[in-house]
Specification:
Helices cover 73% and strands 1% of the residues. With 473 residues, it is mainly α. A hairpin with a 5-residue loop joins β1 (14-15) and β2 (21-22).
Length: 473
């Protein structure tokens, strides 16, 4: 149900007759507060990414089944994010604001799922919980991208998305290492008995659930939102009463009338994210089998290999955390397009080099490149995109932009299992390297076709209105 209460404009957000909004620059602490919820969201995502492949194998899934079992994340993202974006664009409440109601609902549901996941007694129970967890995570996550564009002027948006990258890197680094910490620091059992999930993994999920909820709640309580600036907000709320069909119609209209820069960046995203998906599908189990030479998931060194892989995934998040402090400076000097292209190339080299590792500690060198790419992937495309979007449709367009992340994952989930079984002989490490090749392609596309010119949100809004056949005064 949409919240329809309209509030008077606050003194912090000044609106002109044309509907343009003056957004004051925010302090470091204010940007930190509005981004801290992403620390919790990423904590949940990285617990899932680092451990769902092994959890599925503990529950007796075969390698060619893994991609299909990961189908929950892209399908829920494809369906949920544009709908949540559309709804949050039309939501306003004097206390909850526009995006924060969705932060809260997503956090509550995700927390419940994270507590239940490690207690899964069967493969299909774990898969079903993953569907609910990914749906809930998308409800909480999608409005955070629009949140930056809502609150920050264009001059601070790179910094705002970089702060999100910093929070993502910090949350991911701790979450990925948590099972190792549980078993090596706190002496929690890492043994899988009769196909059960080890206690080190269970306790990690319980901690992650608590952190997810606490971080989201901190952002909700420490950050206020500006009331909707454009004068037509009441009319748009009334339009939302036309029902679900009206929302689908507007989402479809937005898809077919995307700004030029969004189309360019969509192609880059389409080839970037498969490299990450294939890493998340297979990296942990590839390390356990190819580097630690485990023969099965019941082998004594298998869990050690998975835990060490988690440590290296934690390390790439640490790299992303540190690089997030540097990337705004690099973007200011080299431009956003060149910065992102170079970072993607670094990530590709990291993924390709994994297959040549002979000693486990060499994996850390590989993850340096992945961490640099990850920091840029989480910030540069959104910083380049935000200024090209109409201010009153940022939520729905950010949701649509997610299509070009999840569509390649859907393709990989549906068809890569066949490739694994028939072409790669279930070679998990080779699958990770294929992801590196796709990331090189994304880097080249970014450098050659993405426009460096930054469109203003007003120009984008005028273009959108002209497409609709309306006149802009």
């Amino acid at each position: 149900m949409l919240i329809k209460t309209i509030a008077m404009a606050s003194s912090a957000s000044l609106s002109s007759a044309a509907g343009a909004t003056f957004k004051p620059k925010l302090s470091f602490l204010q940007i930190f507060n509005m981004s801290f919820g992403f620390f919790g969201i990423q904590f949940g995502w990285d617990l899932q990414r680092a451990n769902m492949g092994p959890i599925y194998e503990y529950l007796k899934a075969s390698p060619d089944q893994i991609p299909l079992l990961f189908l929950a994340a892209p399908l829920t993202g494809l369906l949920v994010q544009p709908i949540i974006g559309y709804m949050s664009d039309r939501t306003w409440h004097p206390w909850w604001g526009r995006r924060r109601p969705y932060f809260f609902v997503g956090a509550v549901l995700s927390t419940i799922c994270l507590f239940l996941m490690p207690n899964s007694g069967s493969l299909w129970m774990a898969a079903g919980l993953l569907w609910i967890l990914d749906t809930s995570g998308n409800i909480a996550m999608e409005p955070f991208r629009a949140f930056v564009a809502d609150k920050l002027p264009d001059s601070q948006r790179t910094r705002g998305f970089a702060m999100q990258s910093l929070m993502i890197g910090l949350g991911g680094s701790i979450a990925s290492a948590l099972p190792w910490i549980m078993s090596n620091v706190f002496d929690v059992s890492r043994v899988s008995e009769n196909g059960s999930i080890p206690h080190s993994v269970k306790f990690s999920f319980y901690i992650g659930a608590s952190i997810f909820f606490a971080a989201i709640l901190y952002t909700i309580l420490s950050t206020k939102e500006y009331p909707p600036a454009d004068l037509g907000f009441k009319e748009k709320v009334k339009e939302s009463n036309k029902g679900f069909g009206g929302g689908i119609k507007e989402i479809n209209h937005a898809i077919f009338n995307m700004p030029k820069k969004m189309r360019q960046l969509a192609l880059v995203q389409f080839f970037t994210w498969p490299g990450l998906f294939l890493m998340w599908f297979y990296y942990s189990t590839a390390v356990a089998r190819n580097v630690f030479h485990a023969t099965s998931e019941s082998d004594a060194v298998y869990t050690k290999g998975v835990e060490f892989a988690g440590l290296t995934l934690s390390f790439y998040n640490v790299v992303a955390f540190v690089f997030a402090l540097i990337i705004p400076i690099a973007a200011n000097k080299m431009g956003r397009k060149l910065t992102h292209s170079i970072c993607l190339f670094c990530g590709a080299l990291g993924l390709l080099s994994v297959g040549f590792v002979t000693q486990k500690f060499e994996l850390y060198l590989c993850m340096i490149g992945v961490g640099i790419a990850w920091s840029s992937i989480l910030s540069m495309p959104y910083a380049m995109l935000a200024g090209a979007l109409p201010e009153d449709k940022i939520g729905v367009y950010m949701g649509i932009f997610n299509f070009f992340i999840v569509l390649p994952e859907i393709i990989a989930s549906l068809f890569f299992g066949w490739i694994m079984e028939h072409l790669l002989n279930n070679n998990r490490m080779l699958a990770v390297q294929i992801g590196g090749g796709l990331m090189i392609l994304a880097a080249v596309i970014c450098y050659l076709i993405v426009s460096e010119k930054q469109e203003s949100s007003d120009d984008a809004k005028i273009a959108f209105l002209e497409i609709e056949g309306e006149r802009s005064v």
